[in-house]
Amino acid sequence: MKVPLNVRRFLDHAASIYGDKIGVIDQDGQWTYREFKERAWRLTSALKAMGVQAGDRVAVLAYNNHPLLEAYYGVVQFGAVLVPLNIRLTLEEIAYIASDCQPKVLLFDSDFEAWAALLRGRLPSLSLVEIRIEGGHDGYQGYEELLAQASPAPGPDVVDEDAVAEIFYTSGSTARPKGVALTQRSLYLHALQCGFGMGIDDTMVLLHTIPLFHVNGWGTPHYVTALGGTHVMLRRFIPAKVLELVERHRVTNAAFVPTMVGMLLSEPTRETRDLSSLRQMNVGGAPSPSSFVEASMAALGGEYLGGYGLSESSPVVSVARLKSSLREAPRELQDRLRGFAGLPMVGVEVRLEGPLGEDLPWDGESVGELLVRADSVMQGYWNLPEETEAALRGGWLHTGDMAFIHPEGYIKIVDRKKDIIISGGENISSAEIEDVLYGHPAVRECAVVGRPDEKWGEVVHAAVSLKPGAAAANEEILAYVQGRVASFKAPRTIEIWDELPKTGTGKVLKTAIRSRLRQEAEGR
Asked: 10 Å Cβ neighbour count for 431?
């Protein structure tokens, strides 16, 4: 008899094997895995009583908290579809998403009551449930009251493994947000990939530093639960708070983007905290130079593992774990490879495609578009058949990321296709220039983009912010880079910002910098 691959089995397993173990910690509350499962089934029963059926969408607009974590099971284990919403999007973007996926129920954190009310005004049939962790409002069904009235008995539901379980919307920074539809099967196999590829077990204590609606965060509810680890919820990324929780709960693992790591390195309380429990930092979102990797490991203590993934692949494609054959390699090479996108996970195939569709060699030099084939790849974009066909043409996910692959198998993302700077016909990788800029002792953050230019089409422009207390003139930074890259790649202009624009998870928002440069060019 074929047993469907669905994520319900992870929480069933954890409750059976680790029933009395603390599985979830959220502020002053904590729950065992047995209690976690009971609460998830109460949510299932409550949603059914509200008329939610298999295939209906249930959206969540919330910070990282235990109700959001519970929804990863309570919504999907009877066949409904979970839609975690990005709290950093604008109201119009949220409204567009709601109109696109038509959720039947919205669970919302009290801080977003005004948005919830406006959404119900546009979707009159939308039922609202308020997550009242801090405060609350009259006139709404409360989440805890809803669960208290519902049955905790597991249901008999058998969910098709090819049914859509979760939809995650892309940020929409250059177009309308697209809903990435992930099936029960793809999420199940993605969790197994992570279990194989990250070297984790039931001693794992994961601090949820990345929002669960974000690509770097949403796989964790499955694989951490499957392996019996402990979830520690974090509502907002505040460096001092992160370090406090690492010490208090003996956190072993956390995921970051490089900007977050930089903020931890600059946090004044870091040296007063006991961070000895930290074993692993998984860092995605951008490649990291070897000097940054070395400094991070020295200051925070955990192993620095670069990684790569995208919404369309559930998300993790690769992790930069160090192969045993490289343990005796020079330290500079080790640190450089740790900052790469890493080795493909078990079950993931990758190839590099050249401009004519040809395969490129893994020689550490040839740059092409990274293509991915894996069980964890999406079913497609919600309600967008043409975009789905384009992204999955030929049976491979076309990532839109330009990369090379080291002969040892390590992927290095050099740029998004759209971020490649073309100056006078020459292709320039912004990531290459950023690596050099990060070597300057005064530079805290940087972003390299193309600046419109009448003669060359575009030229290289660098936006940087400086470390606290540091000082450096534009000319000094430009001279530093010019001596380390080919002349046509060197920035022609530089701008020092107090703070670079960021996405909701701390990733530098290049679109905002490019937009400003475009407006300046149009003004001229």
From this structure: 19
Flag whether 508 is in a domain: yes
Is the bond preceding 441 in cis, omega lying within 30 degrees of 0? Answer: no
- The answer to whether residues 236 and 209 touch, using CB atoms and an 8 Å cutoff, is no
Mean per-residue pLDDT for 504-517? 81
Sheet holding 493-496, edge to edge: 443-453, 457-466, 493-496
Which long-range contacts (C-beta less than 8 Å, at least 24 apart) are formed by 464-467?
464/437, 464/494, 464/495, 464/496, 464/497, 464/500, 465/496, 465/497, 465/498, 465/499, 465/500, 466/442, 466/496, 467/266, 467/441, 467/442, 467/443
Establish if 515 belongs to a structural domain.
yes
Closest CA to 478 of 451, 496, 502, 452: 496
Give residue-wise pLDDT tens across range 301-325.
999 999 999 999 999 999 999 999 9
Residue 217 included in any domain:
no
Q: What is the per-residue burial (b if ≥16 Cβ within 10 Å, else e) of 488-511?
A: ebbbeebebeeebbebebbbbbbe
3-state secondary structure of 490: coil
| Torsion angle (degrees, nearest 10) of CA 13, 283, 320, 337 | -170
pLDDT, tens only, 145-200: 999 999 999 999 899 999 999 999 986 544 688 999 999 999 999 999 999 888 88
Distances from the Cα of 86 to the Cα of 26, 47, 94, 181, angstroms: 20, 22, 8, 16
Neighbours of 192 (CB within 10 A): 19
Residue 455: partners with Cβ closer than 8 Å, 6 or more residues away: 424
CATH number at residue 496: 3.30.300.30
Q: How many domains in the chain?
A: 1
Show Cβ contacts of residue 207 under 8 Å, excluding neighbours closer than 6 positions. Answer: 232, 234, 242, 245, 246, 249, 251, 253, 254
Q: How confident is the model at residue 129 (pLDDT cuts 50, 70, 90)?
A: very high
Residue 401 lies in a domain: no
pLDDT at 420: 80
Backbone φ and ψ for 68, nearest 5 degrees, come out as -65, -40
Instruction: Look up the domain containing 500 and give its range.
Output: 420-523
pTM of the predicted protein model = 0.87
Position 392, amino acid = L
pLDDT greater than 80 at residue 505 = no
